[in-house]
Structures are given as C-alpha cells and as structure tokens.
Amino acid sequence: MKVPPTLSVVLGNLLKKPATNPFPEKEPVPVPEGFRGKLIYHVDKCVGCRLCVTVCPAGVFEYIPEIRKVTLWLGRCVFCKQCVDVCPVNALEMSDEFLLATYDKYDDSLRWLKNDEIEKMIEEKKKTQKKPAQK
Ligand code: SF4
Ligand code: SF4
Asked: Is the CB of 77 under 6 A from ligand 1?
C-alpha cells in the first residue's frame, strides 16, 4: 500500500514542539518596540483641549465639561495612536498591555475615569468653587 506523502509530515509534526508560543500555558512573548497596547490616560496632565475627541475615529472619548477632562471607552479603541500624537501635553500613552479580552466592551476595566471618579471630581470642583476668595 502506498503511504500518502503528507502522512510523514503529519507524523513528524506530532513529535515536534509547537512552533507558536504556548500562551496562556506559558508567559507571553515580549511585545516589540512601538507596540500599541491599552491606552493610558494621565488625568492630571490633561488640560481639556478636546483634540483627542476630534481626532479619534472610533468615538472613544467623551468630554466632561464640568471638570474639563475626558472619559475613555477603550472597548471601542482601534489602536491607531492618533490621540497620543495629537495630545499637546502627553496625557495619553500607548502601553504594552494587550490582554484586554472581556465579555462586555463597556466593562469598567476598559474605562478611564469611571462614573464614580467623575462624580467625585465634580463634587471636589464644586467645593473649591464655593470657598470664599482669601484676602
Ligand atoms: S488610539 Fe485611535 S481609536 Fe484608540 S482612542 Fe486613540 S485615536 Fe481613538
Ligand atoms: S488631547 Fe490630551 S489634553 Fe487634550 S483633552 Fe485629550 S487628553 Fe486632554
């Protein structure tokens, strides 16, 4: 009986180690330089210019006028990095993090400035505005 030519290849591959990284069994391989992972928002640096809102093609940013900051819905991000490039104060940065799988793209883990943080910041701003001016 003639052995199919592919059989030796199949049998050979059964004995070889996997060609790919066996993640998540093992640690993931390091990402290359310039990798565009989960976006980081440095809230304190943000000056509320709204350039990121204008440039983002995916509707990730929502401006919050009361505190002149933005909230980010990262589940929509397409990792184009345009917001990072346009931000005048480096308040946005791409990280190495790529483990972003979730059942809900509006999950809190994919959000910068969550609702409770926004409410707290608004309250704090109101308090400081109420304080009488010092002579
Ligand atoms: S990387 Fe692109 S898609 Fe993601 S938030 Fe920035 S501008 Fe929007
Ligand atoms: S571009 Fe930068 S400074 Fe301007 S609103 Fe966006 S994050 Fe803030």
From this structure: yes
Report which bound ligand comes closest to the CA of 43: 2
From the alpha carbon of 61, which atom of ligand 1 is closest?
Answer: 5
Question: How far are the Cα atoms of 12, 17, 74 from residue 6, in angstroms, in the given order?
Answer: 10, 18, 45
Ligand nearest to the CA of 56: 1
pTM score, whole prediction: 0.84
Q: State the pLDDT at residue 4.
A: 81
How, if at all, do strands 61-64 and 69-73 pair?
A: antiparallel
Q: Which of 40, 83, 84 is nearest to 58 (CA)?
A: 83
Question: Separation of 1 CA from ligand 2 center, angstroms?
Answer: 71
pLDDT under 70: residue ranges of the chain = 131-135
Taking the centre of ligand 1 as the mean of its atom positions, its distance from the CA of residue 42, in whole angstroms, is 15
CATH classification code of 38-114: 3.30.70.3270
Average pLDDT for the chain: 92
